[in-house]
Amino acid sequence: MDTVALVALARAARDGKVPPEILALTITSSVELPSLVTGRWGTRCRIVAADETSLTLAGLKRARLVTARGKEPPYTADVDTPDEDEPTPDTKALLSAAHLLFAALDQGAAPEPLDFHAPLRSALAAAARAISGKGELAELTQHPLEEGIRRVALLLAARADGRHAACELEEMLRQAMAKPEVPKALRQKLWSQVVELQKRLDLHDPAIAEEGDDLARLQRKLSQAGMPKAARETAKRELRLLRGMQSNHHDYSTYTNHLDFMARLPWQPDPERPIDLAAVRAALDRGHHGLEKPKRRVAEYLAVRKLGGENASMILCLAGPPGVGKTTIARAMAEALGRPFARVALGGVHDESEIRGHRLSYVAASAGRILRAIAQAGSASALVLLDEIDKIGEGRTRSPMAALLEVLDPEQNPHFQDNFLGVPYDLSHVLFVATANDTSQIHPTLLDRLELCEIEGYTAVEKTMILRTHLLDRLRAEIGLPKTPEIEDEAVTALIDGHTREAGVRQLRHALAKVLRARALALVTRKDGGATEANDEAGAPITVAEVEAALGPPRFTKAKALGVLPVGVTTGLSVGPGGGSVLFVEAATMPGRGELVSTGSLGDVLKESVRAALSHLRAETSRYGVEQGKLASTDIHVHVPEAALAKDGPSAGTAIFAALVSALSGRPAPADAALTGELSLSGRVLPVGGIRAKLIAAERAGLARVVIPEANRADVPEDLHLDVTFVNTVEEVYRALFPA
């Protein structure tokens, strides 16, 4: 308090001329008195006791200073005291929030959303008891009631976060000091907190000048990067070199770029966020229908983290045909986990230096794509998408596939060596997600390091859900239609079955966009013509006629019941980079000496399946309705159409067997049935892969029945409209296709 004012009040108290009330307010300088304090808020007080060293006041009411007069303190003032006995609804709500915040800070628990009906005086008293420090008291007394309470609440909230962070850091330090050797996980948590404090508070070595040349600023950034010892020593050595080097030296820019990259690169993982599995699942479901395998893997990863388990870096490989959502689900995973997202395109990369970087001796040397992506994301805990890993180039000497072995091996990537960086870098906190269309093109050694998660395509039911819940709204916003139109079930069927035939939904999206663009064109044309009902028509349901008008007649037709297939022809199922597909196996017989010919660009495994089926048929001729001795005088030709496409694998064994039986017995196979399964020489039907993709292809083709191995029962999806027959032997296949 001002000393002159205190002495004047003490004298007035001794003379018995104590004023009935005074207005107490806070100022920053005596220069403001008396004219510059007009309009400020203070507290009307009654003097309880006063002497030359202290003053005791009893607060009565808040008041606003209207005018102040006088040449020396105490000054005479006119004040305005608003009626605050009954707070407004806004004030009540604000006081309620402040009261809840104070209670939470006092009790250390989250506040409950309860109403607060305490009188104003009690509320202010509770606030004064809950806060401490001059800053909060000043905010409370210098502003109107609502603004003061709001500012105090914000200050207390910030102070509470700081106390929580300080307690957490103190607890980690206590744990570290109590152990002879600090565990790696605890050491990384401490480093994360230290780096965060350095950046937020702009802490650096006091020896570094606050302002100066570029090297001083670079040194300051390096001191805040939280680099490990080896990197710090390298940075110090290069800084000493730069300080003794002219700026026009040919190596000056090389070392400067190297140090700048080291300063930009995040060296410590981000502090761990609270894990809410329900929120993560909701974030993944919001943008993607189905795709349960990658969603479940993310949930498992977080569950291990939540239980405090030691979890190595998650290295997923999302394998599936184009358009099934591999890249978008990776983005959604990063969003759900709260991690920055970085994409590294590997298609066509054919040099190891693209992954490991160039050495500093190279002209225009730079870091590899992996570290550049992490630096761009700004986080050592980012989710890095390695897109199209199956399309990476192969070279004789500098293969990038070999360089990826170190990146994707959890045992090696904590010490990843980038040629440009020159020091080990820890990649163990990065979540790597790779995408591929054909895993057979990935080197077996690299594939062994990936956690394969196959996405085999969508059923017709799933495509319908995706179209209605995701595609329609997004495309409406992109195209600019005023309303999101409904779409009839028949129109959805026409789009899915008549104009697209794919495992994903990319072509479906293109077809739907074309229909909506046609509607947008018609809408603008009618508006230009003066039609007033155009906006109402924009929300009309999309019909089959509108689909056909925009896209033309159906490009694909379902193979509905066609009676019977020609003798010697059966329907098989295959799977490839583009998803599942239907193929036909043809067998023809002719008089000869029992020779076998197979054509159609068949691989070695598929040719062996043909020989195994024929050998089993020779051994069990009478069981399958084939005349005795006919095989010895008959030549057989097995052909698989679309000879320009290479075909291989064992899964066509049952289809080949059925085609041979049909050709030799003269009985046609049913046209609405397809087969898949490996055939053994003893007549057993063995399990095969890609069952989901194959069944989806059979449903797209309009088939009614599918015969698959019993061992693949668990792979059959529930939402397919197919009659699935499970078999263990080829005799069961024969009875299913050729009933007596």
UniProtKB/TrEMBL annotation:
<dbReference type="InterPro" id="IPR003959">
    <property type="entry name" value="ATPase_AAA_core"/>
</dbReference>
<dbReference type="GO" id="GO:0005524">
    <property type="term" value="F:ATP binding"/>
</dbReference>
<keyword id="KW-0067">ATP-binding</keyword>
<keyword id="KW-0378">Hydrolase</keyword>
<dbReference type="GO" id="GO:0006508">
    <property type="term" value="P:proteolysis"/>
</dbReference>
<feature type="active site">
    <location>
        <position position="651"/>
    </location>
</feature>
<dbReference type="Pfam" id="PF00004">
    <property type="entry name" value="AAA"/>
</dbReference>
<dbReference type="GO" id="GO:0016887">
    <property type="term" value="F:ATP hydrolysis activity"/>
</dbReference>
<feature type="active site">
    <location>
        <position position="694"/>
    </location>
</feature>
<feature type="domain" description="Lon proteolytic">
    <location>
        <begin position="564"/>
        <end position="740"/>
    </location>
</feature>
<dbReference type="InterPro" id="IPR054594">
    <property type="entry name" value="Lon_lid"/>
</dbReference>
<keyword id="KW-0547">Nucleotide-binding</keyword>
<dbReference type="InterPro" id="IPR020568">
    <property type="entry name" value="Ribosomal_Su5_D2-typ_SF"/>
</dbReference>
<dbReference type="GO" id="GO:0004176">
    <property type="term" value="F:ATP-dependent peptidase activity"/>
</dbReference>
<dbReference type="GO" id="GO:0030163">
    <property type="term" value="P:protein catabolic process"/>
</dbReference>
<keyword id="KW-0645">Protease</keyword>
<protein>
    <recommendedName>
        <fullName>endopeptidase La</fullName>
        <ecNumber>3.4.21.53</ecNumber>
    </recommendedName>
</protein>
<dbReference type="InterPro" id="IPR003593">
    <property type="entry name" value="AAA+_ATPase"/>
</dbReference>
<keyword id="KW-0720">Serine protease</keyword>
<dbReference type="Pfam" id="PF05362">
    <property type="entry name" value="Lon_C"/>
</dbReference>
<dbReference type="Pfam" id="PF22667">
    <property type="entry name" value="Lon_lid"/>
</dbReference>
<dbReference type="InterPro" id="IPR014721">
    <property type="entry name" value="Ribsml_uS5_D2-typ_fold_subgr"/>
</dbReference>
<dbReference type="GO" id="GO:0004252">
    <property type="term" value="F:serine-type endopeptidase activity"/>
</dbReference>
<dbReference type="InterPro" id="IPR027417">
    <property type="entry name" value="P-loop_NTPase"/>
</dbReference>
<comment type="similarity">
    <text>Belongs to the peptidase S16 family.</text>
</comment>
<dbReference type="InterPro" id="IPR008269">
    <property type="entry name" value="Lon_proteolytic"/>
</dbReference>
<dbReference type="InterPro" id="IPR027065">
    <property type="entry name" value="Lon_Prtase"/>
</dbReference>
